[in-house]
Design goal:
By secondary structure, the chain is an alpha+beta fold. The chain folds into two domains: 151 residues, Ribosomal Protein S5, domain 2; 119 residues, Alpha-Beta Plaits (2-Layer Sandwich). It is built from nine helices and ten strands. The strands form two sheets. Strands 1, 2, 3, 4, 5 and 6 form a six-stranded mixed beta sheet that branches. Strands 8-9-7-10 form a four-stranded antiparallel beta sheet, with helices on one face. A hairpin with a 3-residue loop joins β5 and β6. The two termini are 13 Å apart.
Length: 286
């Protein structure tokens, strides 16, 4: 989030766009409209992209990404979010948005949604009384959690907020992403249409019930990208005994949760030696 600034005084405003993890992702069934009902615990990390909203050099908005993933403007969630918030509140300035990209694409870390949510948080800082979130929520299933930025169980298509989970802040996390990504649509196409397993009781400590949860997209993602299996095996066999190892979203990033930073850091060094070309990061849950 950002500190509110005076809309009449353009300033450079930094906004952090944190990575998300799905600590579990239950696919509960397919709906008549073709979408799937989901149940997922979203948490957010202290690693992510950084957006800088600066006065534009002209009357038109500008976007600079470093590195630039080459996404066409009409598909870029930053541009689409900016169009929607400015349509709702035309007094918003035309910004030059400079993005320091830290999160890889096709990673299951919600980087695009986080960047779009950062546009909303920037707009809220200028005009806190306007409901920008409703205007942007339809851009993607991860947008409502990304704008919320709290550890929470979400249901529906990812648009129905549930209970907060308050006992995970500060948990050390190790992230490992193979070179290749995974198509979310392809994962759902390969999903076993059988009856979903029941969800556990979410009362009490999350460390008690999280091991009984699952990511229903993990099996189809592993079939599409066998490196995901190698990543999970490496994290599960790493020193330090992580208490949860799983894939986030539809992949391809996998994660391990630890009790202490020291074992997490030792495991990070081990996987970096084993997979020198893969993306890795050490993080903590916010």
């Amino acid at each position: 989030m950002i500190t509110a600034v005076n809309a009449a005084e353009p300033a450079s405003v930094p906004v952090f766009a944190p990575a998300k993890l799905n600590l579990f992702l239950h696919v509960l069934g397919r709906r008549p409209d073709g979408y799937h009902d989901l149940e997922s615990l979203f948490v957010f990390l202290d690693v992510g992209d950084r957006l800088h909203f600066e006065p534009a050099d002209s009357t038109a908005a500008d976007l600079v990404l470093d590195p630039d993933p080459g996404i066409p403007r009409e598909q870029n969630l930053i541009w689409r979010a900016l169009e929607r918030v400015r349509a709702l509140e035309p007094r918003l300035p035309q910004p030059r948005i400079r993005v320091e990209k830290a999160l890889p694409m096709q990673a299951g870390l919600g980087g695009g949604s986080a960047d779009a949510a950062a546009v909303v948080h920037w707009a809220e800082g200028l005009f806190p009384g306007v409901d920008f979130r409703g205007a942007v929520a339809g851009l993607g299933a991860d947008l409502p959690p990304a704008m919320d930025q709290q550890a929470r169980v979400w249901r529906g298509t990812g648009d129905v907020p549930g209970d907060l989970v308050t006992d995970l802040a500060g948990t050390p996390v190790l992230l490992l992403k193979p070179v290749g990504g995974v198509s979310t649509a392809a994962c759902f196409q390969r999903l076993d249409p059988g009856a979903p397993a029941p969800s556990p009781d979410f009362s009490g400590s999350s460390r008690a019930w999280l091991p009984a949860t699952r990511n229903d997209l993990e099996a189809p993602a592993r079939a599409l990208n066998p490196d995901i299996g190698a990543a999970l095996d490496a994290l599960g066999g790493a020193a330090g005994e992580p208490w949860l190892v799983r894939m986030t979203g539809s992949g391809s990033t996998c994660f391990a949760l630890y009790n202490e930073k020291g074992p997490r850091d030792a495991a990070l060094e081990a996987v970096q030696r084993r997979f020198p070309g893969w993306w890795t990061a050490a993080a903590e849950i916010l």
